Amino acid sequence: MQTEPTKNINDTKARLVGIPLISFGITMIQQWESFKTLKTEFWWSFWLAFLNTFFIWQGLRKLMQILITKYPKPEQTQRRLLWQTSFALLYTMLVTFLVDVYCLWANVTEEKALTFWEAFGIGLIPTTIVTLAYESVFFFQAWKEGLQRTEILAKEKIQSQLEALKNQLDPHFLFNSLNTLTYLIDDSNQEAQTYVEKLADVYRYVLLSKSKDIVPLSEELDFAEAYMYLNKVRFQDNLQIDIQLKKEDLEAKVIPLCLQMLIENAIKHNIISKDKPLKIKILSENNNLIVENNLQEKRIFDNSTKVGLENINNRYRLLATQSIVVEKEDQVFRVKLPYL
Questions:
Q1: What b-and-e string marks burial along 206-245, b requiring 16 or more CB atoms within 10 Å of the CB?
Q2: Is the pLDDT of residue 111 over 50?
Q3: Is the model's pLDDT at 234 over the cut of 80?
Q4: ∠ CA 210-216-217 to the nearest 5 degrees?
Q5: Which of 61, 68, 115, 223 is the 20 to 30 A CA-CA neighbour of 45?
């Protein structure tokens, strides 16, 4: 599946037909009288118009590919168009000077030469046509692929909910049962009270996040801390969590349950013991949320539910048109999640 509108448009036929056609049209406007008799002036003008259109088309095509790569998102359209317009005007001036004015000054008499601004005005014809054509194609592709991503994301969410219904208890039932259990626990057993409350917090967040595509990192971190507490009770000091996030990082957006899945993935696939404690670090770097752990893989893994990294990566590709980064070194396993 493509993650963004294509930058390599198959436009060979359009260029083969369009360049001579536009050149011929410009020449007819300039040399209507010569066109009637097909004088030498007409063919000379056609050659200059052809060179002018060819270099403008090729140059603007490359320029738009670069800018679409740099600013592919809909919210970046205004910035992309601003740069595109500025560079297109400057490039058209350059082509006008090198092709039209220079060639005319070098090959024809002064009476027949166009001024720079007259030639530049004519050069704006192919510039406008090429820009509008490629912008229209890019807009249509972005709109079409946006619809496709929305449909796929909706199917992914429905499928995820169906799998949850097949493999899990009703979260509402379990959440309500945990609240009831809290009242049944003796008030003197504070540790049990806290454990049940944290477990209820986990399921509360799962319920609230089911209808969301993205959440603030602050909410995700609160949920992850409740989930980590449950595991700390189980593993004690054999599980060590180091959170190195700044206050401004908490305002970033991520997909819901991503931290929990990565922590669960680390716990599931690594040895956790007194001799080999599992150390999980959560930090932010270069507009990415990073979760890493020391690598001490189990030889025999539990049966995988195939929802961990693949689930996170699929949702990122659909929502952010980019993939997560997974790095596996000799001693460290690291996952980078781009902020949305």
A1: beebeeeebbebebbbebbbbbbbebbeebeebbebeeeb
A2: no
A3: yes
A4: 105
A5: 61
CA angle 102, 103, 109 (to 5 degrees): 100
pLDDT, one tens digit per residue, over 134-179 is 777 777 777 777 777 777 777 666 666 555 544 444 555 566 666 6
Span 281-301, mean pLDDT?
87
Q: Cβ neighbours of residue 46 under 8 Å, at least 6 residues apart?
A: 23, 24, 27, 31
pLDDT at 5: 44
Which residues on adjacent β-strands are paired with residue 243?
A: 282
Structure tokens, 328: 């596996």
Per residue in 81-98, pLDDT tens?
888 888 888 888 888 777
User: Closest Cα partner for 19 from 60, 59, 65, 51?
Assistant: 51
